Amino acid sequence: MAEDHPSRYVKLRKDQAPLEDIKPGELNQPIDVPQLHVHKCNECGQPLPESYQAPADEPWTTGIINCAEDPESCRTGLFCPCVLFGRNVEQLREDTPWTGPCICHAIFVEGGIAFAAATAALHGFIDPRTTFLICEGLFFSWWMCGIYTGLVRQSLQKKYHLKNSPCDPCLVNCCMHWCALCQEHREMKSRLSDDSVTPMTIVNPPPVQEMNAAGDSPDSASTSANGAEQVQVEMQAI
């Protein structure tokens, strides 16, 4: 008969049992590692160095009521604000043509103003309840248009790190819509000006030189040598 060997396992008594049972999945919880907390760019997600500091908000180059500084944009914003808004969106978003925002602005702003003027002119011919509903709808569409144009202004501020001037972008476009459009156009015009031309230097290359064969006459060889000596590089500054 095989001899009985003592067991290598220790049997715990009741008072030595664990105080609480481990629940399933309790040991698979994520661990917080402070070294992995790296500041990343909000646009591309690349990690940034510890010394990186976000650029501070800069003031606008012109005030919101300084429309007279640019007479062209002032006239366009006064008589055709839809065109000025379309140009602003096109300069801000290169993949968006100016015609789309221009048409939307013309329908909701210029069209709303014309509809409101027609409603006021026909006062007495339209039922007062209908007039109240029309005015309420126009007021709502004006605020929606202010929010849309305010989002465009907010994108401009985010692109150039501009501060709110004088207040929230949507509120500015609702209360001072024409002045806001002119200010945005002047800001982008000053930052994306194409008037300054970088001086360039044009270097004309020397003429092509051909190698003569061994059997050519000495006169032709001397002529090519003289031509090579007369090669000059002309530099013109524009």
Fill in the keyword field for this structure.
single chain, mainly alpha, 7 helices, membrane, PLAC8 family protein, flat, transmembrane, 238 residues, transmembrane helix, PLAC_motif_containing, 2 strands
Explain the overall architecture.
This protein is an all-alpha fold and 238 residues long. A two-stranded antiparallel ribbon has the order 1-2. The longest helix is centred in the middle third of the chain and has 33 residues. The termini are far apart. The relative contact order is 0.11. The mean pLDDT is 75. InterPro entries: PLAC_motif_containing (IPR006461).
Low-confidence parts: none
Across the major sheet, the strand order is 1-2
Q: What is the alpha-carbon Rg in Å? A: 38 Å
Mean pLDDT across all amino acids? 75
> What is the tally of helical segments?
7
How far is the N terminus from the C terminus? Answer: 111 Å
Number of E-type strands: 2
Characterize the main sheet: 2 strands, antiparallel
Order of helices and strands: HHHHHHEHE
Strand content of the residues, in percent?
Answer: under 5%
Shape descriptor reads flat
**Structural class of the helix and strand makeup?**
mainly alpha
Q: Assign a percent range to the helix content.
A: 40-55%
Could you give a short description of this structure?
The protein is mainly alpha-helical. It is 47% helix and 3% strand.
Q: Secondary-structure map with pairings?
A:
Elements: H1 71-79, H2 81-92, H3 99-121, H4 128-160, H5 169-175, H6 177-191, E1 201-203, H7 218-229, E2 235-237
Antiparallel strand pairs: 1-2
Helix pairs in contact: 1-2, 1-6, 2-3, 2-6, 3-4, 4-5, 5-6
